[in-house]
Write a structure and sequence with these properties.
Layout: H1 3-8, E1 11-14, E2 21-24, H2 53-66, E3 70-71, E4 112-119, E5 136-146, H3 155-168, E6 176-185, E7 188-197, E8 200-212, E9 218-231, H4 232-240, H5 245-249, H6 251-261, H7 267-278, H8 289-299, H9 303-331, H10 340-358, H11 365-376, H12 381-385, H13 387-421, H14 429-439, H15 443-452, H16 463-469, E10 490-491, E11 501-512, E12 515-520, E13 522-523, E14 537-541, E15 544-554, E16 557-562, E17 573-578, H17 580-604, E18 610-614, E19 620-625, H18 632-647, E20 653-658, H19 659-666, E21 680-686, E22 690-693, E23 708-717, E24 720-727, H20 729-749, H21 756-789, E25 794-796, E26 799-805, H22 810-822, E27 828-832, E28 837-842, H23 844-848, H24 853-863, E29 867-870, E30 874-878, H25 885-897
Parallel strand pairs: 3-4, 10-13, 26-27
Antiparallel strand pairs: 1-2, 2-6, 4-5, 5-9, 6-7, 7-8, 8-9, 11-12, 11-17, 12-16, 14-15, 14-17, 15-16, 18-19, 19-24, 20-21, 21-22, 23-24, 25-26, 27-28, 28-30, 29-30
Length: about 900
């Protein structure tokens, strides 16, 4: 037994319901947690005064500061800013994994206090329905990083602080229970205590001692971490005794939404719903109908009566919760998209729109978001600073959502048509998920379309939970498991940027992926990394020269790939030389990348974040997180600013720092180019412009880059804009190439360069006008041809058939064929031209007579040495043997005769 329990008067007991071991100051039969105990605070607050969420945050901070803890500001909820295994912060400990918990980085304070917004979407379908589930919640923590040299406190003090805090806010300590359990998350685990009051868990006290390995086993770690998590929303809830946690935490937002929608609150239903939900392990129940039925039975209502009362209010709660979650997501730099963290933001955003639609709200999502922002900005100044950015994204996403719905209807109809053809009567779940994942179509929209087509769609109550679970973990950063056992390579290019040649000892030969590579004790060859290709060059030994075709780094050891027989070099001293023109060009592009990112942030906003990069010799690219296309005006301004920084000839400041020192100096913007491993990181600073953790090669001052030219921009995916650019002599080449194209185009039109746009516009307008006139004449000619062909229709097997070789282009052939079969002039048409094009069409009568015009044209086109196909109503084919057209038409007619 932990000594502190004895001092505080807690008795070790066993729950007679669940069998768990717990501690309480009074003897009791149950552990105090649901489902062993019901919620006993609804309408009966557990504290001596009510607290709002933000009041309890302040009290939590004040209490712990008095106890010697240092308050630190919240971290962004976008965890990928400092780690590469998850997208979002799911608990306060995520902020300190893996760097602090592994001992590589010192904590920002020790011990510390933090109120951290956290996001979990693994039970998003329960939000609004259980009274307690939220997508975004605030986890209060007092965290301690204990080392052998500085062991601050462990179980006893953690438990004492928890006991004293709840006593401080007016909770009767005889109602507190500490339940022994085990916690695992984010790559660590350890024993814990779940702290409950009146049936609800308010805190978890975790004592992290282990690292969770990929095979599921544990490995003890030297750092012992006190990781506490206090559910501040729940504490505010039990202090007020409201029917739901939503009423306690978003009260002003909910009141405004009720006013807009006319929805009224039934406290009896909502309170009873929360109490029964607390008795159920909702996380393990995909079908919420069980909860609904239990609530209805307890209140003497039918299920339909319950839903009539509860669903409108649940929709209000969902909208209030989701807009709060979106406020943090968008403030912290997430751009809604169809991948990674952007996918999760879009999921939350579109669910919000769905429930607004269920309430028949006439307001836009932007209108509703404004209500939430007015509430949140009182407590989070960073949200106030991002207000315009948030509203821009919300308005744009709402437009995109409607476009997606309009475009997606035909996709759903095609899918259902195929399912019916395959004899299925209900849409499979994987197809329903794919329609959402790949096409952005909410399941309710799919169901609505399916109903109109008399087709069944069954939407699981946990649909969005299933979808979110597949997207919460970043699966794209799989580590290379290849290992080498050599001393760390001395990287000479960091010591002298201008060094081109070197001598080194060959330590060994490594074979990887069927290719051989040499390991040296030192090197000037830059190994590929950070989007920068490796150096190329040569090595020499005993008068022989070997080409180095690629270099990469594995565990701080550089592998130099050589295609020739190189076993003889092991143990020898070689001379190496890099291709300097390639190196300096790549360095110019790398430094230019940093200038473009900085310029883009100035022009487009602070949300700009590097989403990928690839440096090249002639041109490079940089991917940026941005919610809409970059305009030409914006692109020109980015290019101008980047070149201004070049002309300022700013000396680069490149230093090695410990990770914690670098983060304290510069924050998470260090990791624009991705998460850099290791305790010591290289920081590339362009003073007053940009700072990044970067291992790449750079020029020594911005003036050495030369001109920067942006070639183009494109959208590579939702939420990511790609800028293609060239720097240095490559930029000069790009400029000269464009000038050449301009001169050649001007010469064609025989005008000066400055007259080219006007001339092109005039020629295009004239061409368009003439094309329209030509199309009109072609239509008239086709009509005349059709009139002349009407008398050539003959009857075969009771069907009117037209078979003709005529002088017409492909479009004319199609128009003539469909005119005949659509307007009752013929049932089957086979027509071709002297260019080897053949077209067939069939009327409904012909199709009813089992004429498959697509198969017939496919076979007839083989006579032309080609192929064809199409629909049952219209098909086309072509082949190089145009001289066989008469035979091909005859073949088509023969096929219908048989």
């Amino acid at each position: 037994m932990v000594e502190i329990f004895k001092e505080l008067g807690y008795i070790k007991q066993t729950c007679k319901t669940c069998g768990n071991e717990f501690y309480s100051q009074v003897e009791r039969d149950t552990c105090g947690d649901a489902p062993c105990d019901e919620y006993e605070f609804i309408g009966n607050p557990a504290t001596d005064k009510p607290y709002t969420l933000y009041e309890i945050q302040q009290v939590f901070r004040e209490f712990l500061e008095k106890e010697g803890h240092t308050h630190i500001p919240r971290y962004p909820i976008l965890a990928k800013r400092w780690r590469d295994d998850v997208f979002l912060v799911g608990a306060s400990i995520f902020c300190f994994q893996p760097w602090v918990t592994s001992g590589l980085v010192k904590p920002p304070a020790n011990p510390l206090e933090l109120a951290q917004p956290s996001v979990r979407l693994n039970d998003v379908d329960n939000v609004g329905r259980t009274g307690r589930h939220m997508t975004c919640f605030t986890m209060g923590t007092h965290t301690v990083i204990n080392t052998e040299d500085d062991f601050i406190y462990w179980e006893d003090e953690t438990i004492r602080l928890c006991h004293e805090f709840f006593k401080y806010i007016g909770i009767n300590t005889e109602e507190i229970t500490f339940i022994k359990s085990w916690w695992k998350g984010g790559g660590n685990e350890g024993p814990c205590y779940e702290v409950c009051v009146r049936g609800v868990e308010l805190a978890t006290l975790v004592f992290i001692q282990y690292k969770t390995l990929e095979n599921g086993e544990m490995e003890e770690i030297p750092i012992k971490v006190v990781d506490t998590g206090y559910g501040l929303e729940r504490i505010a809830w039990i202090s007020q005794g409201t029917p739901t946690a939503y009423d306690a935490c978003f009260g002003p937002v909910i009141d405004k939404l009720k006013e807009l929608t006319g929805v009224t609150l039934n406290e009896d239903i909502l309170g009873r719903n929360a109490q029964i939900a607390g008795m159920m392990d909702i996380e393990d129940i995909g079908d919420l109908k069980e909860l609904r039925q239990k609530v209805a039975d307890s209140l003497g209502l039918t299920l339909d009566e319950l839903l009539e009362f509860a669903e409108p209010m649940e929709a209000i709660y969902i909208i209030a919760d989701h807009t709060r979650c979106l406020a943090f997501m968008l403030t912290d730099g997430i751009i809604p998209s169809n991948v990674k963290e952007g996918y999760l933001a879009r999921l939350v955003l579109r669910r919000t729109i769905r429930f607004m639609k269920e309430l028949n709200m006439s307001e836009s999502l932007a209108d509703v978001m404004a209500i939430q922002l007015d509430f949140l900005t009182k407590f989070y100044p960073e949200i106030e600073e991002s207000k315009d950015h948030i509203m821009n994204i919300i308005s744009l996403e709402e437009e995109r959502y409607q476009t997606t719905i309009n475009k997606g209807r035909s996709t759903v109809k095609r899918s259902i048509k195929k399912l019916k053809k395959d004899g299925q009567s209900e849409m499979p779940l994987d197809m329903l998920i794919d329609l959402y994942d790949a096409h952005g179509l909410p399941p309710e929209t799919v169901e609505e379309i399916a109903n109109s087509l008399d087709f069944k769609v069954n939407i699981p109550d946990n649909f969005f939970t299933l979808v979110a679970n597949e997207h919460e973990v970043d699966k794209s950063n799989k580590k290379d498991s290849f290992e080498v056992d050599y001393p760390e390579t001395d990287l000479l290019f960091y010591k002298d940027f201008n060094q081109k040649e070197f001598d080194a000892e060959v330590l060994g030969l490594v074979e990887k992926d069927g290719k051989k590579a040499l390991v040296f004790d030192r090197t000037v060859f830059y190994p590929e990394g950070g989007g920068q290709p490796s150096d190329l060059g040569t090595i020499e030994y005993d008068g022989k020269t070997f080409d180095v075709t690629y270099a990469e780094k594995v565990n701080n050891v550089v592998l130099h790939y050589v295609d020739e027989d190189i076993e003889e070099l092991v143990g020898k001293t070689i001379s190496g030389k890099i291709d300097w023109d390639r190196r300096i060009t790549l360095a110019r592009h790398h430094t230019a990348t940093h200038l473009i990112v900085a310029s883009a942030r100035e022009v487009l906003g602070e949300h700009i974040w590097q989403a990928g990069a690839q440096k090249g010799v002639s041109r490079s690219r940089i991917d940026l997180s941005h919610y809409k296309r970059i305009s030409q005006v914006e692109l020109d301004e980015i290019e101008r600013r980047a070149n201004e920084y070049v002309m300022e000839n700013i000396p680069l400041d490149i230093q090695f720092h410990s990770r914690d020192e670098a983060e304290q100096l510069y924050g998470f913007k260090l990791y624009q180019g991705g998460i850099v491993p290791g305790k010591i990181i290289r920081v590339v600073k362009i003073p007053g412009v940009d700072v990044q953790a970067c291992a790449g090669t750079h020029v020594l001052n911005t003036g050495a880059i030369g001109p920067i030219k942006i070639n183009k921009t494109e959208r590579v995916q939702d939420g990511v804009e790609r800028i293609d650019f060239s720097a240095g002599l490559a930029a000069v080449d790009s400029i000269q190439n464009e000038n050449r194209l301009l001169r050649e185009s001007s010469a064609i039109f025989k005008v000066d360069d400055d007259q080219l746009p006007k001339t092109c516009d005039r020629f295009f307008s004239e061409w368009k006008s003439q094309k329209n006139e030509i199309d009109k004449l072609k239509s008239q000619i086709a009509s005349l041809k059709m009139n002349s062909l009407t008398d050539n229709v003959c009857e075969i097997n009771g069907l009117g058939v037209l078979r003709e070789l005529i002088d017409a282009d492909f479009k004319e052939l199609q128009k003539i064929a469909t005119d005949f079969t659509d307007n009752g002039k013929a049932d089957i048409v086979f027509i071709g031209n002297n260019d080897g094009k053949i077209v067939g069409s069939a009327s409904n009568k012909a199709i009813d007579n089992e004429i498959k015009i697509n198969d017939i044209i496919k076979e007839a086109a083989q006579v032309l040495g080609g192929g064809g196909g199409g629909r049952l109503t219209l098909a086309q084919g072509a082949g190089p043997k145009a001289e066989n057209m008469e035979s091909a038409l005859d073949k088509a007619v023969d096929l219908i005769k048989n």
